[in-house]
Amino acid sequence: MRIIELFWAWITSPAQWSGADGIPARLGEHLFYTGLALLIALAIALPLGLLAGHTGKGTFLIVNSANAVRALPTLGVLGLVVVLRGIGLLPVMVALVALAIPAILVNTYAGVRAADPAVVDAARGMGMRSSEVLRLVELPLAWPLILLGIRTAVIQIIATATVAAYVGLGGLGRYIFDGLARRDYEAVVGGSVLVVALALLTEAAYALLRRRNPASPSKAPTRTS
Amino acid sequence: MNWQWVRDHIPDFADKLGLHTYLSVMPVLYGLLIAIPLGVACARWPRLYPPVTGLTSTLYALPSVALFMLLLDVTGLSNATVIIPLTVYSLAVLVPNVVDGLRSVPEPVRQSAAAMGFGPVRRLVQVELPVAVPVVMAGLRIATVSNISVVSVGALVGIGGLGQLFTDGLQRDFMTPIVCGIVLTVLLAIAFDGLLVLGLRFLTPWARP
Which value, in Å, is the radius of gyration of the alpha carbons in chain A? Predict the structure, then answer.
């Protein structure tokens, strides 16, 4: 296949392995965006989802925020952020985080809500405080679904960060858009295959984590890019 | 917002909406055409199910930009470049729903059908698939709405329907087309979601009070 030849020619060229446009630097950028966006999204969505699930408040808002984000076109959101705020890490990060939050929020919320009420009552009956019930009972029970939400969010961020290279961000998407601009299809293929590999590694990591948690659900996530 | 620009471009919006609809709905139809036999097979032979979902959910994880770019080499600048990856994504959403739907058929219903002399094929077509419709429809809604939002990414390879408004706006640093594109995409998604809900009511008259 031509794709394989093109990729091989690209990846074995020494130019690809050094400097600011080298694979280590670009991969590092992509991982940095993904990690940072995930951390921020987790910091926001995890406590909110746990709290909403624990108290049973905010169902309407949470379910609808997930549906609204599913319909939002990633490229449009990125474009709007860039036109309003200019090219830069901060505006693009805002878009990455905003698109990643619902997956974690909804799954955390649903996971806590799905905790067996009999188990939760038993924990209360044993004299656990509300915060202990959440931390020691509901959180562990919700963990498989939360993990699924995190995986969906990571897949979403990896894909969106690739698109974000179109609006000036670094990362692996740079090869794709610089390659298109230079009519250098070899670089386009190189960048695309690396992005695909990164997504596959995420899947593999999730599969490994899931094996420790056999109760994990296997529903497909939602995608917007 | 430049309202004059919006008024001048209404015919252009209509063209883009049409293409956008075609690019997002065709993959769902193709996906359904493949998902029904695949789902029926997985429901009948449960050992088939884990490898099939493993494969589809792995394919689902692949970013659309990368798939569009890699397909350019095979399909060139044609609608197929966008339709093929979206068909794969739709398939990944639909197969579990077809299987869950078929599994949701109550055992007494299945046995009654058998007792009435329905053969396996007739039972599938006239009893099991209709009972599975609500669960399958839930999958169709997710696949359609997320396709409508993903198609825009196709604008990066020149085939994006409403997504073209985003690339235009970005190249000219002009907000109006971007806002129009977002609004039209969301409205299109809401319209199709509503249509599918209506379709479900029509297809399952027995569920109406």
Answer: 20
